[in-house]
Amino acid sequence: MKHLLLFFTLIVGLNTYARKIEGYIVTKDADTVKCEVVQNFAVISGIDIASFQYGIRVVLEDGKKRNFMPEDIKAFGIYIKKDTLHFVSVRVESPGLFGGRDQRQVFMHIIQRGHIKVYYFIDLMNGPNGAIRTPVYAVQLSYNENAHWLEAKKNDSGRYDFKAFFKSFIPEYSTFFDSMSDKARLDEVLDKIRKFNRAMVK
Prior knowledge:
The protein contains three helices and ten strands. By secondary structure, it is of the alpha+beta class. A five-stranded mixed beta barrel has the order 6-7-8-9-10.
């Protein structure tokens, strides 16, 4: 609920200061509709991915303005110079603060397609002086399945245990990831996923 309130607080009354970026939305019927995506006025330059994660405001070709939450559409994209940033509506699952599992539906920037899909997300972590913007990654096997935080599982020494993660996430191919070192860093894991996806299409 707090993310929903934050989203609507940001979009109310920002038309004067908003930046409009050419893009598109993908409806639940898989239709692609051209539009302009409104960027939060708080960003002077560049793209703030976090401002799109819980909802977007768009201007359609007929001039009408619409708000879309992750539950409303499949995906959207924006054109930045010669690149296209594509965001997918994803239900992400993570360990709950007090046990169990938490789920939330958000827009995530997809950076790796294939058998294992990789998404980029800016999470707000609690810090001594308030929320800290922390880049995290989520992985998903199928678009109709939950995504999972890639860094979610830690071993007894406090390090991210990527081998244990893949053993539970994709058990039939866990041996593919056994060659990673016990001290594997995130960039090594992302490279391993890219190699895995290439191997799956051969």
